[in-house]
Target: 3'-5' exonuclease
Amino acid sequence: MTDAQETAPAAATQPRTEDPDSTAPIPLLEPREGVPPVITTAEELARVTAEFAAGSGPVAVDAERASGYRYGQQAYLIQLRRAGAGSALIDPVSCPDLTSLGVALESTEWVLHAASQDLPCLREIGMAPRVVFDTELAGRLAGFARVGLGAIVENVLGYALEKGHSAVDWSTRPLPEPWLRYAALDVELLVDLRDALAEELRRQGKLDWALQEFAAIVAAPPPAPRKDPWRRTSGMHKVRRRRQLAIVRELWTARDELARRRDASPGRVLGDAAIIAAALNQPSDVQGLAALSGFGHRMSRRQREQWQAAIDRARALPEEELPQLGQPPGGPPPPRSWADKEPAAAARLSAARAAVTARAGELNLPQENLLTPDTVRRLCWEPPTEISRETVTSALRGYGAREWQLEQTVDLLVTALAATAPAD
Model:
């Protein structure tokens, strides 16, 4: 038993039911050793690094960002907890290089909740784990319907975490004490949760599946820059003309540049709804722009002139420079069009989806965790010339499927593809 387990509040070792009439959760209001002071100096960081290097067992790690307030996704607070070291809160604004801490913990298993969300900002400051345990993904594989940190801590361990500060501006300085308490509590029971979920996965025969998934998270390359990111503006389905698309593109680009300079969330600079309204109405002057939602009395005339200039640039573009309707596909077209364009592919997809969905139900896990919908679509759109276990396995591996996923789905997909193959 680790030191952390010895001092932890008594917690259930088996997952509780999700019955609302079950025993009420126990509120977890304070960290065991109190709220630790925020580390802001090189000397304090060196001390914490030594303490955590000397600790034992896995290390719980969390990061707080300022999503919705700042332009990027950098970390504004790092929380850690390890047996023998207790908890630590580190200010990565004052201590922007945590490479020494990352190196000290590189041979340790890191326990994170929704690891893929935090790993990019952790790597930016020098913290790159070799081994992780993702409690959110573990909960999905174990079949829990609710896998948010608060919900799964309550369901598995019987404690209620206070989640009232999850969406605050973590770039605020100094950070209020209630926020720091909330942050410390986020790692308070993370290792305990890891132990309980690992035991549940082992009981279900899924622990090796989880370990394969965790290894894939660590090995995943950084995502490639998105092509035409402006096309993801909320409400784009209303935009059906190329000139309107050009206005969206110009406004999105102008907003992005301004948000970057201000270090502000783009949505706080100009909302997506305002961009779409301008594209649909195509105002010819600042007065017309001011009449649209999102460009009203709270916006200065100078700001309106900036946005109108972007609109005017789009209005002046020659026809051949206007963006095309529809984004160039990076894979198969939307499945809704298959029945008309490629009925054979539509039949394959229907059979394959049904097979994967049924198997996921038998295994009590989400379909997308058994095999991603994109993988199924790609396989059905361009199946191997010869359908066999070997060719389907090779195709799925090429799309990034893990070995446990192959074991569970290859035979089902071979059957589905073969059953829908055209007769000779």
